[in-house]
Amino acid sequence: xxxxxxxxxxxxxxxxLPFLFIAFLIIELVEHKLKNKEILKKAGKFGPVVGSILxxxxxxxxxxxxxxxxxxxxxxxxxxxxxxxxxSDEMLPIMISEQVEFSFILKIVLFKVLVGMLFGILIDLIYxxxxxESFDLCEKDHCHCHDKKHSLLLSSLKHTLNIAxxxxxINIVLNAVFELGLEELLSKILLQGSIFGPFxxxxxxxxxxxxxxxxxxxxxxxxxxxxxxxLAGLLTNSGIALVxxxxxxxxxxxxxxxxxxxxxxxxxxxxxxxxx
Length: 276
Hints:
This protein is 74% helix and 0% strand. It is built from 15 helices and no strands.
């Protein structure tokens, strides 16, 4: 049985590899064509609108860039949160590789973009903090993100293999759950069918790793999460961006406020979706 579980998980993941690679290659091309920093600088009071749209575009590092831009006060708090909410990290390549209907994927992305816009604008209306002090964190941290020798193919392959590893692990766990007849236990852990499900999913989404969005997406595709819980987890998931915020911004109270806002928005929106 163990051999069957492992074999099925590996074979299922291998089937996804070509689709994952193509998806990441497209994402890399989009990311290197867009001049997000310059666009956001010029957005002004329309920052949350522009930010959420850019956040919805499939690209890996934009939420992390937004954290840096907020710390240097190039963008507002509302713009930062709009980007966090609209970003889906690895949801898009996973759904594409699983051949989910494009119309459904588009609805998820547009929903997150609209939620980002709405709450970003509201937050800026309530609280707008400006500070024109600026510095380039990429240069400060020597992250080489502007390196002209950056290989799109190599980067796409690296992303593909990293995500494939997460998918294998998740597939092994899910295959074991279904093989052992533990679906009911998994549902109880994730509070499937409960109004509190989105609150658990939002917590998973806050995990500062691309694996969080992989887990949430795969659980939904395996009918272990409701639509509201899927959206709750994807709204709170912004990859490594929150880690960069806490590392770069020395105001711990402000960081915790941002974390709390993102969590509450994701949970409440997920709850509303489940109810209606």
